[in-house]
Write a structure and sequence with these properties.
Layout: H1 8-17, H2 19-30, H3 34-44, H4 48-60, H5 64-79, H6 85-109, H7 116-160, E1 164-165, E2 170-179, H8 181-198, E3 202-213, H9 215-230, E4 234-238, H10 242-250, E5 259-262, H11 265-273, H12 275-280
Parallel strand pairs: 2-3, 3-4, 4-5
Antiparallel strand pairs: 1-2
Helix pairs in contact: 2-4, 2-6, 5-7, 6-7, 8-9
């Protein structure tokens, strides 16, 4: 392994010996008080000063792979908290400034006069490792946040299509909010899968909670009804609003015998609760 400093052992010992001073300098550069430091430690489980100290020792020993691995670990840890990237950026700047200040103090204490070329090479290596840390941290942070958002999106998708069984072969799908093209596609996919998976014979679509449905969404909705019918499932729709009805009429289509409509959910449930009616609903 090549080292950044010719006498890295002496510098490492100097940093270990003056750790408390280094920690104080870090907090001063970042303008963080002890209370804030403890809050981050308790709430986020992140030991800011300890981690900065360990990072500096990795840099002194030119442990590039350890720096990269540490950055990935830190990125995930920060992504799990409410700590912002801007705060992390300020903290990395504080680490960089504190490290250079400490290096200057070390050189003064040892009456060191570095050759310009060597100094330039050392600056490049130190900055490279710090930059690699921040780059690795940012990528890891972003990847974790993206995965979290994807999981939340899938959860919302599942919750937005709540197909509820009310008997062995009858299910109800109450929809609320706005249905755009994207959500309509999700509804279409999940409903057809659910019908096939659970052998749903009759589906009650409650649209009374729908605030808005654009034209493309209505087109998807009509395709859904065709698909449900093709799978041998009968549909009752309730809660159609006048504006949505007008949009459906504008498509110049008819539900025909594929769909039965009722004015409200109670009427639809009454149709299903009566066995004789249940047999004649779609006749």
């Amino acid at each position: 392994m090549s080292y950044i400093f010719n006498d890295k052992n002496a510098l490492e010992s100097f940093i270990i010996e003056k750790r408390k001073e280094l920690e104080a300098l870090l907090l001063s550069e970042a303008s963080i008080d002890i209370e804030k430091l403890e809050e981050i430690k308790v709430v986020g489980g992140i030991h800011l000063v300890d981690n900065a100290y360990n990072l500096i020792l990795m840099i002194v020993n030119n442990k590039e792979q350890e720096v990269i691995n540490f950055a990935k670990k830190e990125g995930v840890a920060w992504a799990k908290t409410s700590l912002t990237l801007s705060f992390k950026l300020e903290w990395v700047k504080a680490i960089r400034k504190a490290f250079w200040s400490f290096l200057y103090e070390y050189e003064q204490a040892h009456n060191m006069k570095r050759i310009t070329e060597n100094s330039y090479e050392m600056v490049i290596k130190i900055n490279k490792l710090i930059d690699e840390f921040f780059q690795g941290f940012f990528i890891s942070y972003s990847d974790y946040k993206d995965e979290l958002l994807e999981k939340e999106r899938k959860l919302v998708e599942n919750l937005s299509v709540p197909i509820i069984p009310i008997s062995n072969n009858i299910s109800i799908l109450p929809l609320i909010g706005t249905i755009d093209t994207y959500r309509a596609g999700i509804i279409e996919e999940k409903v057809l899968v659910e019908i096939g998976k659970n052998h749903v014979g009759k589906l009650l679509l409650d649209l009374s909670g729908i605030a808005e449905m654009d034209k493309e969404a209505i087109h998807h909705f009509l395709k859904l009804l065709d698909g449900v019918s093709m799978m041998g499932c009968q549909t009752i729709i309730t809660g159609l609003r006048p504006d949505i009805v007008r949009e459906i009429v504008a498509f110049d289509v008819s539900f025909g015998n594929k769909v039965r409509t009722t004015g409200n959910l109670q009427q639809a449930l009454e149709l299903f609760s009566n066995k004789d009616n249940d047999e004649r609903i779609f006749v």
